[in-house]
Amino acid sequence: MIIDKLLEKIDEKRNPCVVGLDPIVEKLPPHLLTESSFTAIAEAFKVFNFAIIDAIHDLVPAIKPQMACYEKYGAAGVQAFEETVAYAKEKGLIVIGDAKRGDIGHTAKAYAEAHLGKVFTPSGRKFSTNADWLTVNPYLGKDGLDPFVKVCEEHDRGIFILVKTSNPSSGQWQDRLIDVKDDEVADFTERNIQLKDRRTELYNLVGLQVHRYAKEFRGKRGYSAIGAVVGATYPEQAATLRKLMPYSLFLVPGYGAQGGKSKDIVNCFNNDGYGAVINSSRGIIYAWETLNMPRDFARASRNAVRIMITDIQDALKDAGKWPHNWN
Amino acid sequence: MIIDKLLEKIDEKRNPCVVGLDPIVEKLPPHLLTESSFTAIAEAFKVFNFAIIDAIHDLVPAIKPQMACYEKYGAAGVQAFEETVAYAKEKGLIVIGDAKRGDIGHTAKAYAEAHLGKVFTPSGRKFSTNADWLTVNPYLGKDGLDPFVKVCEEHDRGIFILVKTSNPSSGQWQDRLIDVKDDEVADFTERNIQLKDRRTELYNLVGLQVHRYAKEFRGKRGYSAIGAVVGATYPEQAATLRKLMPYSLFLVPGYGAQGGKSKDIVNCFNNDGYGAVINSSRGIIYAWETLNMPRDFARASRNAVRIMITDIQDALKDAGKWPHNWN
C-alpha cells in the first residue's frame, strides 16, 4: 500500500521532510526565463523543478507541488504540473498534490478521479494527473469526502484532509467550540480527548471524521493513507490531534517561512517517531536567493534540505521520538 | 461593476437562471466523440459547449462551467475550460467559474489571480482563465478569503463563498451550533437573525463574514459582487441567510436533478425579485437523452432552459417577488 511505501521511503532516507515545488515567476533564477508566454513560463517551471528533483531525490521521500502555482498559467501551467508529477515518480519519489479540492458527491468523485484515480474515456479508464496523495477540503461534509476515500481504496492512493491549517486566521471557524453528539463523545472518550462541557473545536470534529476513515483503511505497519493537514504553527492543537488520529499521517505545512519551529513540530509525531511529513517550500527552493547563487539554485536547495533534515532529526532525538528503524 | 452588469443581463432576459456547463464523457452525444485521447475529449467538450452556448445565449445571463469536469482531462481539459470561458464572453455571457478554490493567504492570492485577475509574467501582468466570478471555499478563514475579495475589487470581479451547500451531508459541520462572539451578536441583531441561546449555525457565521465583505463593496443598485453559495435543497436555511446577507447574490445549485423545487427557491430572492442566480446543469445539457435526440442536443438544451425559466418566473410571480423592471 502507498502508506507503507511512504513509510519505507522515510526509513530509507531517515527523513520525514518533503519539498514543496511551488514555482513563482518572480522568484525563478532569471536565466531560466527569457520569454513571457505562458508556455515559456511553464517550460521554465519544468526546468527548475526537474533540476531540483535531480538534486534532492536521494534525500527526501516525497515532493509536494502546490497546484495554485501552476494553475496560474492555465493549461500550460497544468501541463508543467503533470510533467513534474511524472518526472518525480520516475525518480522514485512519492508525489503529494496540494490542490485542496472539495465539492459535493459526484463532483468530488470527478476531482478524485482527476488527481488520484483513472478517468473515463471511450476506450477505457486512464490515469490523468496521477499523484499519489492529494489534499482535500472538508467543508462540504462526509458525502464530499467519501468519493476521495473510495478512490484511495480502489487505486491505492492517499489523501490529507484539512483539519487545522497553518494560517493566522485558521481559527476563525476551525477553533470554534461545538456541542459533541453522543456517538462522537464515545469516540473522543476512547481516544482520551478532554471535552470542554461536552464541547470541542471544529478541528477536532473534522479530525474525528479523519480518524473514522483512517482506522478502517490501514497498511501493514498500522498507519493509514487517510491523513490530515495540521499546521506547524499550532503545536498545542497538534498534540491533541496526534492523540485523536493515531493512525493518520499528518502533512505539516508552516515550517520555516511561516514560523513553525522543529521543537514544536515534534508534537505532530507519534512516540514511535512516525506520523508526520514536514513540508518546506520557499525555504528550500528559493535558498539560492539568500546565497545569491542563481546558477546553482539546485545545489542551494540541496543544502537547504540537508539543514532542514538535520534540524528535524535533532528535534526528534531530543523529544525521544527517534524511529527504531533508523538505529 | 460586474454585479450591475449581471443584474442588467438578468433584467434584459427576465431570467435569473444560469446553465452549468459540466460535460461528462459518458453522457456526450455519441457522434461528438470518435477518439479516446484527452485532446479529442477536450475538443468534443468544446464542440458540445459552443453549440449549447449558441443555442442559449439569448436566454440566460450567465453560464457556470464546473472546473472538475475539465480538470479530469488534465491540461487538455483545462484548455477546453479556458476556451469555453472565452467563447461565452464573446457571446455576451457572464461566466461563473465553479472551482471551489480555497487556500492560505499567498496561495489563495495565486488562485484568485489565476481565475479572476492577472498573473505575473516578465513582460507584465496578463489574464489567465479570465472568468467573471468564482466559487470559493471558506474553511481556512478570513485570511484565505481576503485575497479573493481584493482581486475582485482590483479587477471588478465577483465571488460566491460556500455558505450552505446543497448536498445531503452539508450539515455535518455547516449546521453545528457555535457560541456567537460579542461583535457577531451585534451584527446578527442588526440583521434581525434570531440566535439560539446566543448560538447559531456555522453557516450563519460564514454568512455573516460574507455580509461584512458585501456591505463594503456594492454596485450602483445596492447589490454586491461578494456573494454566497446557498443550496436550493435547504429552503428554511435560505430564508434566514437571505435576511442575513441582503446585498449578496446567492448562487443556488440543487435545482432539478438534486431535488430543489422552484417554490422553495424563491426563498433565495429578496422581495425586489433579485438576489439569486439559479443553476441547472444536468437537467439542461443532457435534456437530449430523455428526448432521445443526440443530434439536436443543443435544441433540447434550449427547450429545457425555456421550461426552467417559466418555472422560476411563475414561482417568483406566485411569491410576489416579480421584479419591477420586468413589467
Folded structure, characterized:
2 copies of one chain form a homodimer. Chain A has 327 residues and is an alpha/beta fold. Chain A has a single domain (2-326), classed as Aldolase class I (TIM Barrel, Alpha-Beta Barrel), CATH 3.20.20. Chain A has 14 helices and 12 strands. Chain A has helices at residues 2-13, 38-56, 67-71, 74-90, 105-115, 142-155, 171-174, 182-190, 202-215, 235-244, 262-265, 282-285, 287-291, 297-318, and strands at 17-19, 62-63, 94-101, 118-119, 126-127, 133-136, 158-164, 177-179, 199-201, 224-230, 248-252, 276-280. In chain A, helix 2 packs parallel to helix 4 (74-90), helix 2 packs across helix 14 (297-318) and helix 5 packs parallel to helix 6 (142-155). The relative contact order of chain A is 0.14. Chains A and B meet through helix 3, helix 4, helix 5, helix 6 and helix 7 of A and helix 3, helix 4, helix 5, helix 6 and helix 7 of B.
CATH hierarchy class name of chain A:
Alpha Beta
Number of helices of chain A: 14
The greatest interface here is: A-B, 70 and 69 residues
**CATH architecture designation of chain A:** Alpha-Beta Barrel
Biggest sheet strand order of chain A reads 1-12-11-10-7-6-3-2
**Helix proportion of chain A:** 40-55%
**How many DSSP-defined strands of chain A?**
12
Mean pLDDT of chain A: 96
> How many domain modules of chain A?
1
Look at the helices and sheets of chain A and give the structural class: alpha/beta
Unreliable residue stretches of chain A = none
Whole-Å distance between the termini of chain A?
A: 24 Å
